[in-house]
Amino acid sequence: MSKFYDDIDFDNTDFRKHPERYRVGRGEQGVLLVEPYKSEILPNWRFKSVSIAEESSEKIYEQYAQYKKAGDFVGMDMARKFLQMGYTRARRYANYPGGKKYSKNGEVNERKIDEEKAAAAAIFEKKWVSVREDEEYLQLKHEHQKKYG
Question: Which pTM does this prediction carry?
């Protein structure tokens, strides 16, 4: 697998016009760098409460479906990353008040489970899993990685 950051000028690259420059990377890597997708998806990304997470994850999933319909793998993968990030961030806030895992002295804070945030995380997780297991997504991902690295 190619390195995600290998010679990519994120500030001056439109990845819709140049999908060959996009690397899948690991996990959420590049989620806040890849344009125009970041600007399209980020405004919909929220996880403060269950109702907000439901609305947010549904909007992002709808964007995923639109990218899929257009055959836009980069958009599909970016939507997947935002769903994954919705899960991981909500989970972080579910486990630690204010999302602060570490104290100022670098020690791990005590976990205090926030059930609302845990439920919000589960909503994102469900959508994220459905995307990452989507056969068409997996096929396009494989093709993109084979073609571009």
Answer: 0.92
